[in-house]
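Apologies for my clumsy wording, but are you able to produce some protein sequence, whichever is easiest, and the tokens describing how it folds?
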Amino acid sequence: MTEYPDLAAALAALPVDLPPGRLVTEEDGRELLLWISDDPAPAGLWRQLHRAHPQTGLWPLLLSPLDRTDDDYRPWLSGELYPAEASEPSRYDPQALLRGWWRQVDEDEDEDVSEDVSEDVSEDAGILDEALAPYGRTWPGPAPTATVPDGAAGTEARELAEVLGSVKDVRLGLVRAGSGAEALTVCGWGGPANHADTGRIAAVLADWERRFGAQVVEVGFATLELSVPVPPATLAEALPLAAEHTAFCPDLVFQGTGTLTAYAEQLVGAHQWSFWWD
């Protein structure tokens, strides 16, 4: 283990005992990416590790696979983690990313509408504008930043982890990282590859952690579950946030609720944000 002194030392110094698990390396075996438990995470352990993160530098994640019947537990044990392919999150302005993705949604969905519905451009535009109402094709700008009480973000993350760990067959992962957003690039997760590289995704997630206290709790093959300590209380508050989510993950609307407003309604009072990419 001396080949990987940072993670090895952090694991050895943990104040709690870990269950049986293994170290996962990059495909060529030269870089250590994370530690993963062999079985579902024991109750309460994520909470303990999350509390200890400021001292250990190890960020806990609940890890789920693409297919629970697959022995490779993709992507975590199948060699499908590529940290070198992620760009550096600090290079990006999160709002510029969201604004650009909003324009991309406009272009991509316009093409789909044209192929599937009509050759009439004005009719196509109306369908897309209806789906993205009340904003249509105009990017509304950032959602207002929430006021998050001290400690609330961590408390909510630990509570969500308890819930997810009790209802899902999820394993525990540990990544040498400062946050859940950073952990995604460090371990080489590539779930949204059809939409954006992980560095860009992590840049927006880090911004949401700063603005809303949202924290990454569970990561799947192409899914994310985030905890949210202060959700929007009204539809008016939820709509600009729904626009950010739609730019970040268009499938939520265009393969999900069908309209931005319907998705925004789901955000009112919700302490969990779920994302998935096709």
